[in-house]
Write a structure and sequence with these properties.
By secondary structure, this protein is mainly alpha-helical. The protein contains six helices and two strands.
Length: about 140
């Protein structure tokens, strides 16, 4: 992060940490590097580090525990009562799964499924497959 990328240093550091969390390099529940480690590795000041972590906390990507450290959260959670996805996301995803099942059933009944319908279903399936495992686990229907 030593080069200038056209935005404030705290945003650059927050972007770097956010990407590490999203990619799984810092998995859900993992401790972020200490403030001193971030200062040393990024060359940034303590103020830059504090501002970057504060931004990630406001976005729900990290949570701090007094005396223990700051920990990654993915998917981001904005409130303690949330379990990993926005309150609107799970019902929407469940509805999408139901729509997918209904479309697949109707397309298979008479064998006349359109290319557009198949493409839309494939697009949905790829998007669903890219969801974090923690979200997919919450969508699994009890057997």
């Amino acid at each position: 992060m030593t080069e200038f990328r056209g935005q404030p240093a705290y945003l650059q550091l927050a972007d770097d940490l956010r990407e590490r969390i999203r990619s799984g390099d810092l998995p859900d529940g993992a401790a972020l590097p200490s403030a001193q480690d971030l200062i040393n590795s990024s060359g940034a000041s303590s103020t830059v580090v504090k501002n970057a972590v504060s931004l990630l906390r406001a976005e729900g990507y990290v949570v701090g525990h007094q005396g223990k450290g700051v920990f990654a959260q993915f998917p981001p959670r904005l409130a303690d009562h949330s379990q990993g996805a926005a309150d609107w996301a799970l019902p929407l995803l469940l509805a999408g799964l139901e729509v997918e099942a209904a479309l697949r059933a109707s397309l298979g009944q008479d064998g006349t499924g359109s290319t557009n319908s198949e493409a839309a279903l494939e697009h949905w399936r790829k998007a669903f497959d890219n969801l974090p495992e923690s979200v997919k686990g919450r969508l699994a229907k009890p057997q």
